Amino acid sequence: MEPAVHRAAGSSDAVLRREAVAGIAGWYQRRLAAVDLLAVRRPRWGRIFRLPDVVDHGFTGADDALTAMDADWPAVPPVCRLLFAEGRYGFVHQLSEAMHGYCLRRQRFDEWIACPGLAVAAAGSDGSQTAAARARLEPADAHRARSPRP
Q1: Could you give the 3-state DSSP secondary structure of residue 142?
Q2: From CA 102, how far away is CA 80, in angstroms rounded?
Q3: Whose CA is closest to 138, among 89, 110, 148?
Q4: What is the mean pLDDT of residues 99-106?
């Protein structure tokens, strides 16, 4: 991620900050969606998974995508919390769905539960029942993946 984008995200200029945060969120969302497409086979509902720059991601395979995301992952949960705090609920929903494959393969269960939990709360705030239903699937999948099978 370009350092200038991160500096802009910390700017006191509200418009510049808002645009920078949207750019950062979009970048992580696309990257996570590309990882998800490579890492797991599952139904996907978000439009992000059909965008050309996500489908033509440039990774050589799932391991390459996961390794590339490892360096970026520590910033994702804070970005999710920031988006929620700023009322940018659409980003929260989409980021939460896109993190599925990474969290599953890297066993990041706590974050996989927490970020979609924000998406559920966001859906309650903006009245989107479809988004709320989709957001509830992610923590359920995380709990199921974390629990040993009988």
Answers
A1: helix
A2: 15
A3: 110
A4: 95
Which pair of tokens denotes residue 40? Answer: 């797991």
What is the model's pLDDT at position 9?
Answer: 54
Chain segment 44-81, per-residue pLDDT in tens: 878 888 888 888 888 999 999 999 999 999 999 999 99
Whole-prediction pTM: 0.84
How is 108-138 classified by DSSP, letter by letter?
Answer: -HHHHHHHHHHHHHHHHHHT-HHHHHHHHHH
Q: What is the pLDDT of residue 150?
A: 62
Note the Cα 116 to chain centre separation in Å.
Answer: 9
> In angstroms, what is the C-alpha Rg of the chain?
15
Domain ranges for the chain, please list them.
Answer: 3-146
Rounded Cα–Cα distance for residues 73 and 68 (Å): 9
SS3 40: coil
Tokens of 12: 């006191």
State the residue for tokens 């990041």: 108
Count the neighbouring beta carbons within 10 Å of the beta carbon of residue 9. 20
